[in-house]
Amino acid sequence: MSTKTIQGKLWSVAPQYWAQHFEPWFTPMYKKVLDQLHLTADHLVLDAGCGAGLFSSLAIKTGAGLIGIDAAPGLLEVARLRNPNNSFLEEDLEAMPFKDNNFDVVAGFNSFQYAGSFENALQEAKRVLKPGGRLVIGIWDKPEMSDGSVVLKSIGSLLPPPPPGTPGPFALSEDGRIESVLERNGLKLTYKTVVACPFLYASLADGVKSFMGTGPAAAAINHHEKHVVEETIAKSLQPFNIADDFHFLQNHFLVFIAEN
Predict the structure, then answer these.
(1) How many domains does the chain have?
(2) Could you list the residue range(s) of the whole structural domain that residue 184 is in?
(3) 3-state secondary structure of 224
């Protein structure tokens, strides 16, 4: 079974949880990128791994044209409802159905680390970019830089040990990994920053729903009863209770912009 098929099924288990309780916390990262891109109606953007389409919505508001692709049909349903006048396609990052030199911007947030081969996905992104076009990559910083890694680690404890090279949240987070692959593929890094994306849940239930909307939690449900996964997440969130039922997690993401 292909990585696209596996990841597409996992991320379609609870798309509304992702859309309502997880993806909105990426907004500081999305806004930081849009501040750098200065999109206009003259630009065509590919949201590569568009998820539930929140970044797509923000980019569309600039007047830019946009197409979104994702492996998860459940997330694509949400993206289409949010953005009914744009195309959102079920496609693979490693085999994009677009002609060469087509897009001004290719943006991948929390997506490239789930490709079966990051290098292949990057080469596809480069292929569909126009000369001088810009590639955006947004990923988790190293695990020790984000409280969310504690919760994701607890979910991982419910899964069999993954083989080396298995896609996952922090698969591309090691120092220099992105830079070296960009350079090897002839993409010039023009911007890099770290963005704080704090997660604040008004209740423990919201925090549990948030992480239940992720692919790793969906994978854990294949090995344990759903309530076991939920209880594991709830326990891992306890150290982040700040008052009443509020739970706060500070997280950091890496943003890279490279020119073709």
Answers:
(1) 1
(2) 3-146+163-200+251-259
(3) coil
